[in-house]
Predict the 3D structure of the following.
Amino acid sequence: MTQMKGAHFKLVLTQDGWQRNLSAHFAPDGTISALTCDDNPEGLPVYDAPVVPGITDLHSHAFQYAMAGLSEVRRNPVDSFWSWRDIMYFFALTLSPEDVQAIAARLYLSLLKGGYTGIVEFHYLHNDLDGTPYARPEELSLAIFEAAQMTGLELTHLPVFYAHSNFGGLPPTDGQRRFIQGIDGYAAMLDALNGPAAQAGHILGIAPHSLRAVTPEEVAQLMAIRDDLLPGCPVHIHVAEQVKEVDEALAYNGRRPVEQLFDMAPVDAAWCLIHATHLSDDEVQMIARSGATVGLCPMTEANLGDGIFRAKDYLAEGGVFGIGSDSNIATFAAQELQQLEYSQRLRDRQRNVLARADQPHVAANLWTRAAQGGARAAGRPEQGIAVGGMASFVTLTSPEPASMGPVADTSALDFHMFAGRGFHVGDVVVRGRAVVQDGHHPQEDAILAQYAVAMGRVTERLATRNGDGRMGG
Ligand SMILES: [Zn+2]
């Protein structure tokens, strides 16, 4: 994939709304160096279909893509996040490094075709099946690197620190044995990943898994490691996803999870709080004022029965958000944003909730904000079709807008997100490189073939372990 010098857009969503006939010039680092409204005098490659900025998927556990659809059978009087988590742990104890690489590559291919140009991988699978570290402890992180390089999706990699099973530093369970590390082992792994990440253009960050899995003392130690190895790098943490988690936090020391987090860490714009579903009024304001991004995963949150994020209140406070595919049951950015808007409509019994006075189109408002928040959470330059922004964009292929005449100009994303005609994109450019052209990725056949082989292995292993019929029907 060669670096493009620029592109000419017939119709493009910029920070200032939709514009026609815009020529963009790209710098060697894949950012936009100039934008001019003209008739393409230099003969740059032309994009006829509507162009929108690519979105960075700010939260993914890649391996879970391969178990999507296998946990939709009721096995308890009341199934919940927690019974789903048992299945996920069982599945995680099945995968080899080759499987993880093949699954991640398959997922990343789908994400590129779903409107994403970057990914933040929240990576907590570290150890071998029996819980001992691999000969290279960073083995599974390197499998993720390989998947990103094979697909061209821009990677921010967050090795996760995971040490306990609940508040108060309780010992981990046997099912968590592939996730567990000591502080020193964690620091050594980050150090080992630093060189390969820099060489491949990946960004490294830090991720305390959650307040359940990491003590306040360990958060302080992680901050010291960050200052030492990766100053200013992104920090992501799961927080306040489930009511049970909020109740347990309150029982532990009388403070809600987000309050506890702000008590123990200097939360700022480099931070991303994943989910933050259950917030008090004070917590909504605390996060919005800190400049941190909230990482919303609307399809996964709906699938797991987490609850509804207070998006209307949070955006009214000026809060920053992005979207993540999390459990990877959905791989389309527009589907995540549609679910985000619909949850607010169902709760408030209103329509067009997440719009603004200066951007009344819900889809354009959500898309541009999610693109900006995702880039911030990934530690990347500002995203958006603007000088200094990343030259990462996608074309919308929904067939309908073209037939709608003048309405189409400002409604292309409305159709893409809300008209139920599919969320597919045609061309994908990542940092000035054409990664997908006309819906086709050059490595597609190889990626699908290695995924099929990996799924053969996984299915066999599951069949021998699946005495209690835990997976699927
Ligand atoms: Zn997650």
Notes: DSSP finds 14 helices and 17 strands in the chain. The longest strand covers residues 17-26. Residues 59, 61, 122, 238, 274, 326 surround zinc ion (CB under 6 Å).
